[in-house]
Amino acid sequence: MKHKNTIKIIALLLSVLFLVPILAECGSGNDPSDSTGTAGTDTSVSDGNRFTPTFNDADSYTEMKKTLRTLIMSQIEGDSLLFSFRLDGAASDSIPHEKNVSFGEENGNETVKAVYRLKDGLEFTLYVTFFADSPSADWVVRVKNTSSVRSGIISELYGTDTKLPLAGKRTLNTTTGTALLGENDVKDFSPLSFDMSDGCSETFSPTAAKSSDRAWPYFDLIGDGCGYIFAIGWTGSWLADFSGTAEGVAIKSGMKKLSAYLEPGEEIRTPSCSLTYFDGSAEKGHNIFRRLILKHYSPTNEKKQVLTLPVSVTTLTYRDDVIISDIEKWQGKLDIDLIWMDAGWYGKFDVDDSGNVIGDLPWGVNLGNWYTINPGLFPSGSMNKLTGYVHSIGKKFILWFEPERAWANSQMINEHRDWYYRLSYNNGSEYILNLGNEKARDWMLDYLTDFLKENGIDYYRQDFNCHELERIFEKEDAEGRVGISEIRHIEGLYYVFDGLRERFPSILIDNCASGGKRMDIEMLKRSVVLHRTDYVCLDYGSHWDMEGVQTQTQDLSYWLPLYGTSVGQPVRLFEDSYLTRSLIAPGVGLGAPVGYAGNNVRARRLISELSDYRAYCTGDYYSLVYAPYDKTSRLAYMFWREDLGEGIVMVYIRPDNTDTDPLHFNLKGLAPDGVYTVTPSEKQALTGRKESYTGKELTENGISVKADPGSAVILKIKKVG
Fold first, then answer.
1. Which of 1, 110, 310, 619 is the most buried (most CB within 10 A)?
2. Whether residue 276 sits in one domain with residue 244
3. Residue 333 has what pLDDT?
4. What 8-state DSSP symbol labels residue 56?
5. How far is 6 from 210, CA to CA, in rounded Å?
6. pLDDT tens digits, one per residue of 221-257
7. CB 452 within 8 A of CB 418
8. Which of 586, 618, 650 lies at the terminal end of a domain, its last residue?
9. Measured between alpha carbons, how far is residue 78 from residues 81, 99, 447 in Å?
10. What is the pLDDT of residues 416-450, one digit of tens each?
């Protein structure tokens, strides 16, 4: 039966965030700051060696790398293609072509370039990279019309069309992606599993031309003793089709819709793809993939260090001198990296004598008034008073933008209506910037460059709240050009992000998009997701709770090593450690009022925990006791940094749990002959505690934790011998 994992979503107004062919059989291989206030200066908030793992296991991947290369090169050097297409209805395997394959090297990785030339002048170029330090490869196909006349219609262009050998029982795993605010968001990143026996098939595609909206551009395929992880890089409407065969699983992946001719000299590209092969357990494979993401699909600073995700506190929308006065209450007392200002700083609206916005914050209807910094909030017309103070106390500043969207009668619409697509909802009052328009994308890049420099902004946060971009693209495509509007728009988006990173080599770009809806590998290379889901935008207790946050962390960590948790609940967050410790992640955004957080001793202590523990969250991940979302279960998961010889186990005893026996579980990833200490955050939580343990004891015999319902216990694991 064919499953179509694609759903429509409705409009969203984002709440202001109060505070990222021939293959050997499966084998048995080895397991394995400068605070100047200028955007793009060294924005590393901590020592990269501390927060970014150092991996020294490339040699253990030798056989797996050979297996993967054999699979891919058998298609490149053989008679079949790694990709496929149709030209005027004819299948690519029936179209004669000339092939030229060349080999190279880039940054220590092997590169392969395969050029396929058709008689009519169309040229398909496949670019492949084999990573030297991982059993992984990625590739993309570019198509160019080298003739002097219009090409035929290219359709069903799949950048990946291959068969993966897998023996035994075969399973396909992915997640739900993220949903629209208020619509079962607690299920964001929930695991999905499908049978891939011979004859079974599944098709996946996101909604709204946002890559992780109701679908997840990451998949694993598990067989007997080995498996693959497949990832898609396209920040629009991709499609992935999986079919079980007698020998394994066939994959086709590309754009959801493409049927277009190319003009003379015109070029298009496919979504990029990444494929990782592993032998052994799925858990081993996912940790190999997490390491791959960190090393090759994560933004770095000018020193080529992976950017450390911050612990941040959000300002409310009020006047700059009021914010400064509030921050002064905790100067030097709060272990955070970043002050976060979200939507609402632009446009003209009323502010009272105390510096507070009068009425509801009109953040949405002011979209497009980007040249107007609200004079009631920033009387000088500049943010430098606020950002300068933030820098003076050793902190960084991040500012929210949504430059792809504008409201009717805004400055941008009045001056550049021809740059925008008009949306159908809100009575046609909303518009989307056409990044396929070169003037529009150049404006966006230049405007952001100037604004960040002139206002002392360190980090750039880009939101994107639109649910009908896919429909817009379809409407704008000319006859015989289906898919071209989307390609040019997505290319324009990459152009802007790449331009910002070129101009500010160390800038951290936060890619929000209604909470984690653009999380494909092309965006991961350029940005981070500090706000992984809109699940936490509404008030604590009425819509979301910490059990949902815990569940989303355990599910998302299985796939990705870098992201941020965030919370909209202010003061209650610090009433007990269960709430705060539920946020432990590589990056954390806090909605607590800055004055309160700094003057509360307990808050300061708990925030310091968040800052300290994030270093472990980029290590290897292990689920120890899995639990879906509910309020009755217990769960435990582990992050381990082999390079540090340290890690943490996070144990949550949910508030309605009735188990009276201690929670027993085995640790993972430790050396059997190693010697380790285990230190609990609560002294009495670890039953039968010993001075030290061998790795064999911890992984085979396990340990037990006893705590009351509504408790979070953190176990610090340290290798001592």
1. 310
2. yes
3. 74
4. -
5. 12
6. 999 999 999 999 999 999 999 999 999 999 999 999 9
7. no
8. 618
9. 8, 10, 49
10. 999 999 998 788 899 999 999 999 999 999 999 99
Boundary-marking domain end, from 254, 272, 296? 296
Q: Contact, 364 vs 16, CB < 8 A? A: no
Could you tell me how far CA 149 lies from the centroid of its own chain?
41
Q: What single letter denotes the amino acid at residue 576?
A: D
The contacts of residue 448 (CB under 8 Å, 6+ apart) are 401, 403, 460, 496, 500
Domain housing 633 = 621-719
| Helical ranges in 366-512 per DSSP H | 384-392, 411-416, 438-454, 469-476, 484-503
Q: Collapse the DSSP code of 693 into the 3-class scheme (helix H, G, I; strand E, B; otherwise coil) and give the result.
A: strand
Q: Are residues 579 and 640 in the same domain?
A: no
Answer whether 0.85 is exceeded by the pTM: yes
Q: Which long-range contacts (CB under 8 A, 24 or more apart) does 373-377 make?
A: 373/345, 373/346, 373/455, 374/344, 374/345, 374/346, 374/347, 374/348, 374/349, 375/348, 376/319, 376/348, 376/349, 376/350, 376/351, 377/317, 377/318, 377/319, 377/320, 377/345, 377/351
Q: How many domains does the chain have?
A: 3
Mean pLDDT (the chain) is 90
Residues with Cβ within 8 Å of residue 397, at least 6 apart in sequence: 37, 338, 339, 341, 386, 387, 390, 391, 456, 457, 458, 459
Residue 104 has pLDDT above 80, yes or no: yes
- Tell me, what's the pLDDT at 75? 96
pLDDT of residue 280 exceeding 90: yes
**DSSP label at residue 82:** S
Element (H, E) at 253: strand 248-255
- Residue 175 and residue 189: Cα distance in Å, rounded? 5
288 and 432 share one domain: no
Helices (H), 237-367: 282-296, 320-328
Q: Looking at the domain assignment, is residue 499 inside a domain?
A: yes
Provide the CATH number for the domain around residue 635: 2.60.40.1180
Torsion over CA: 479, 481, 482, 488 (sign): negative
11 inside domain: no
Distances (CA, A) of 128 to 73, 210, 487, 596, 701: 10, 25, 21, 52, 45
Q: Where are the beta strands (DSSP E) in 604-673?
A: 620-625, 634-641, 646-653, 663-665
Residue at 47 is within a domain: no
Are residue 613 and residue 646 in the same domain, yes or no? no
**CA–CA separation, 585 vs 566, rounded Å?**
10
Q: What angle do CA 36, 457, 330 make, to 5 degrees?
A: 75
Domain shared by 457 and 546, yes or no: yes
Compute the distance between CA of residue 568 and CA of residue 589 in angstroms, rounded to an integer: 9
